[in-house]
Amino acid sequence: MVRIRKMADDDVDAVAEIRITGWRTAYRGLVPDAYLDAMDPAADAAAHRARRATAEYPMVELVAESPADGVVGWACLGPCRDDDVPAPAGELYALYVRPALVGTGVGRALCAGALEGARERGDARLGLWVLRENARARRFYARAGFAADGAERVDVVEGEPVVEVRYVRGV
Question: Domains in the chain, please, with CATH?
């Protein structure tokens, strides 16, 4: 059983580790290995602390915590960055679970918490971007009620194009 709660400053190191191991597990073969291998949990934690310290940090950050394992997942949402999604809208920027716990319900609990956070923010819908080739994540979000809306964008990672698709759902 996990508990979803607001992220605290003391959670930053655990979140950095979860985010980076999540990237390395989910995106291996989808983005260049050099990018994944260069990710550094200490640098990620330092950058996260700096972002959280700004007065203009509009994110809602949640962690999933288990009595046995401590922080096992993280979700982050905030204002939608896409002008073509009708307001009021939020965006789920990230949702990661310790790789060993994928499929155990932690992600579903975090997603439910993110939807509640979007409702509390006053959002009518929540969007997110997911790698087009990440079939597992796309199935997860579809099961959570999100649907691809036809929007795509291309990011460049280590010189390689990576296509993302947008999913949206009402909250």
Answer: 3-126 (3.40.630.30)
